[in-house]
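Entry:
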Amino acid sequence: EDGPLPHPRHTSLSTHGLFRSFEYLSEVPVGGEGLPGKDKKPIPKFNCSGSAARLKYEDPFRAQSLRKDKGSSYPYMSYPFEAAEDQDRRVKWIEQSKILHGPLLLNSTGSYPTRKELPEIVQQLHGTLSEDWGNTNFSVMVDEEDHIIARFERRSVDCVSALKRYMDTLTLDSTSKWLVKYHLSRVLEDWASQDTNGFIFFMFRPPWVRANKLHTYLTLHKEERCVKKSQPRRKKGGGGVLLGSSVSSDSSW
């Protein structure tokens, strides 16, 4: 009985090697002992029908009713950089709590001058005119609306047209640093104007003074001050139409 197993008796039906000889086993092992891979298969743990089975990565310390996210059963993984962000927020909050008042806000734009620089502007304009028109009688003053006025005495000026061209060049010349620095502009309606006392006026407008565009337009276009009205007028009790004559009214602005 313990001798070698008998060889199978098999005759090949084809010479092309389609049928080969095979190993003969007398009986199959009982219980599956000896089969390859049988010992590697884990045996599942027995669970009753009333208990819930947990997977490998499920959180075993939190009940399903206490979880915030009902759809997820896995433990919460925190953001790795949230500690650094929280530290930055704390530092910012501490720095802001040291400020006793709000941020510093200026009354005007930093690049534009303010009313506090008005004496300096008058001094700069007077110094420039003294270099070129020192032999004339002039003065630089400020009116109640903060307009800067250069007043020349008519009899001390040799040529009025030369003075006007000089003032025009002064306002249009970009090399005059103080004029560009203070953003001065001409007041066209009062530019090179003369009064009955024999004075010539040149008025500058600083940037904080608002220009009255309607007054400037009506001063330069005096013909627009005459308002004409021409409307058809019906005669009472009749069907005819009487055209009224045009009435012109000169209103003072």
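The chain has a mean pLDDT of 70.
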